[in-house]
Design a protein that fits this description.
Blueprint (H helix, E strand, L loop, with lengths): L5 E7 L2 E7 L6 H5 L4 H9 L3 E5 L2 E7 H19 L6 H13 L4 H5 L2 E5 L2 E4 L3 H12 L2 E5 L6 H14 L5 E6 L15 H19 L2 H10 L2 E5 L11 E5 L7 H8 L7 E6 L13 H9 L5 E5 L9 H21 L1
Parallel strand pairs: 7-11, 7-12, 8-9, 8-10, 10-11
Antiparallel strand pairs: 1-2, 2-4, 3-4, 5-6
């Protein structure tokens, strides 16, 4: 990192002063924001004084915190050098990672999983980076975590990338239609009209990756298939990227049925949130038990995400964490 910028450290009493010279190839406005919004985010997160003058940033504050602030700028400069466009969200997440000492932002956020409609889709949190890496390495990946952590979105992005690179010849997306009890024949309309309400989140993710006309052509040819879990029975899915969404609403029997559909040259990703099981009382969730059953099998990876990995509105992180504390308290009271 020393070659990214020059840094001089000078002890001033109990505080440290760090001076960072921003490289000539880095536009200062990209680093601090058009209206200094990135700089203000960093200033609000720390008690240290930050002075920007010319291409030099001076940080004065307690030694440990000043080093953290310097590291934030170091990581942001590295991201800019890799072609990353900084947003307030990215800067906020970089600050969070450095303060929590969980990961280097430049290692988490620099690599794009797929570029769609001129926009690069990248990991935003350490959990998302682990998830992306797992999908590259293993033919079967389970992603378990709360709403808003990008479980489905990143799985669809990985599937689209593998389809584009011809690693697979089709994408199959499925989820249990629990609200209909999988008894879809009782619903009005043809098969598309019956299942579309339950599969809409999968369609939403696909529409973000593909132009509508392109998606329509792929769906018409069967290159992309979106179907309820009940329609997976009896099939062998070869040369496919298969995604099972909302897997907490499968029974153990349904989970086994799905996992045994995996054919030659195929990958499968299973996503779900074990805190949001909609099965009838007394029915065990297939996602809850599958980790115990498959423990120790090579080429299967379980990635667990938490509130830190939520990438929706900041309030969603707080809500997820509040419910976790509430549930922990209830469990403690019953033990």
């Amino acid at each position: 990192m020393a070659d990214v910028y020059s840094r001089r450290r000078q002890q001033i009493g109990p505080s440290s002063q760090l001076k960072i010279s921003v490289p000539g190839g880095t536009h200062l406005v990209d680093l601090v924001g058009q209206r200094d919004e990135h700089l203000k985010l960093i200033e609000n997160a720390f008690a240290s004084d930050i002075l920007v003058r010319g291409n030099e940033i001076t940080i004065t504050g307690p030694s440990q915190e000043a080093r953290q602030v310097a590291l934030v700028f170091e990581e942001l400069i590295t991201l800019l050098g890799k072609g990353h466009v900084l947003t307030s969200d990215a800067v906020g997440r970089a600050v969070h990672m450095v303060k929590a000492d969980v990961a280097r932002p430049s290692q988490v956020m620099s690599e794009a999983i797929v570029t769609s409609r001129g926009r690069s889709i990248r990991a935003k949190t350490p959990g998302q980076k682990r998830y992306m890496d797992a999908m590259r390495r293993h033919p079967l990946v389970f992603s378990v975590g709360p709403a808003g952590t990008g479980k489905t979105y990143l799985a669809v992005a990985a599937a689209v990338q593998e389809l584009r690179s011809k690693e697979v010849s089709r994408i199959v997306l499925t989820r249990p239609a629990v609200e209909a009890g999988e008894r879809l024949g009782f619903l009005p309309g043809d098969i598309a009209q019956k299942v579309d309400p339950y599969l809409k989140p999968l369609y939403d993710a696909l529409y973000e990756m593909l132009e509508p006309d392109h998606f329509a052509r792929l769906a018409e040819r069967g290159t992309i298939e979106v179907a309820p879990l009940a329609y997976m029975r009896g099939r062998s899915l070869n040369d496919s990227f298969i995604i099972l969404d909302e897997a907490q609403n499968t029974t153990p029997e349904q989970m086994k049925m799905f996992l045994t559909r995996l054919g030659l040259r195929s990958k499968a990703v299973v996503t779900g949130d074990v805190t949001q099981v909609d099965l009838p009382d007394g029915t065990e969730s297939g996602l809850v038990v599958v980790e115990r059953i498959l423990q120790g099998i090579d080429d299967i990876e379980f990635v667990h995400m938490d509130a830190f990995d939520v990438v929706r509105h900041k309030l969603v992180q707080d809500i997820v964490e509040a419910y976790r504390h509430y549930d922990d308290g209830r469990r403690a009271g019953t033990e």
